Amino acid sequence: MNLEDFKKVLDVNLLGLIEVTLQFLPPVKKAQGRVVNVASVMGRLSLTGGGYCLSKWGVESFSDSLRRDMQYFGVKVSIIEPGFFKTGVTSIDLIEKDLRRLWNQLPAEVKNSYGPRYLEEYLKAQRFSMNILCSADISKVTRCMAHALTARHPRTRYSPGWDAKLLWIPLSYLPSFVSDFTISVLLPVPEDNRMVCPNRVDVTKT
C-alpha cells in the first residue's frame, strides 16, 4: 500500500469521526448526552496491514480519552466493537477487487518476493475466513447501539458477534506470540519466507 491508500481510510474512519464528534460535542456536553462510536475488534487486534485496523485503533484511543475528559460533565461515551458481519466492508467481491488493485500496483521485485501464487492463496484464505466468520444478523450490532444510547448505565464497550466474544477479544489479551501464531495460520506465507515456518498448517485445505 502507498500513503494515499492509508489516507483515504483514515479520512473516513478516523478523522471524519473526530470532526463530527467535535462539531456536535458542545450541545452534547450541554445536554449531558452520549457519544457512541463504532470501532471494531480490529481496533483491539490488527489482522492485516493498511489503514482499516490503524483507523479503528485510533477510534478506540480517541473514544477512551474523550470518555475520561467528558465524565466530569455527565457525558457518557461508549464504543461498539463488532466482529465480522456481512456488510459492504466484508463483501468478497469488493475485497478481491481491491486486493488485485493493490497487487497490480506493486513493483515487480515486491511481487517476486511474495511469489507468483501468493495472491491467489491469499484470496482463497480470505474467502475461507469470511465464509466462516461473517454473520448476517446485523441486529446484534444495532441492539448494542440502542442499549448504549438508551440504557441508564451504558457499557464502556460492546462486542457484538460470536467471533468477537469467543475469538478476537480473548486473543487480544493473550501474549503476542500466541496471537501472531493464530493469525499466521489463517494467512499464506510469502515464498521467500516458506523456510521460516515449514510446518505451518494451511487451514483452507483441512
CATH architecture of the largest domain: 3-Layer(aba) Sandwich
CATH classification, class level of the largest domain: Alpha Beta
* Rg, Cα atoms, Å: 19 Å
Shape, per Cα inertia axes: elongated
Order of helices and strands: HEHEHHHHEHH
Report, as a whole number of angstroms, the end-to-end distance: 31 Å
Provide the β-strand percentage band.
5-15%
Structural domain tally: 2
Mean pLDDT: 89
The CATH topology of the largest domain is: Rossmann fold
For the largest sheet, list the strands in their spatial order: 1-2-3
Number of strands: 3
Low-confidence stretches: 195-201
Relevant CATH superfamily of the largest domain: NAD(P)-binding Rossmann-like Domain
**Helix coverage percent of residues?**
55-70%
**Main structural class:** mainly alpha
- List the total number of helices: 8
Largest sheet: 3 strands, parallel
Blueprint (SSEs and pairs):
Elements: H1 3-30, E1 34-38, H2 51-70, E2 76-80, H3 92-104, H4 108-114, H5 118-133, H6 139-150, E3 157-158, H7 162-173, H8 176-186
Could you characterize what this model shows?
- It contains 8 helices and 3 strands, in the order αβαβααααβαα.
- With 206 residues, it is mainly alpha-helical.
- It folds into 2 domains: 1-83 and 137-173, NAD(P)-binding Rossmann-like Domain (Rossmann fold), CATH 3.40.50; 86-134 and 184-206, no CATH class.
- It has a 3-stranded parallel β-sheet with strand order 1-2-3, with helices on both faces.
- Helix 3 packs antiparallel against helix 5 (118-133).
- Residues 195-201 have low confidence and may be disordered.
- One of its GO terms (molecular function) is oxidoreductase activity.
- Belongs to the short-chain dehydrogenases/reductases (SDR) family.
- This is Retinol dehydrogenase 1.
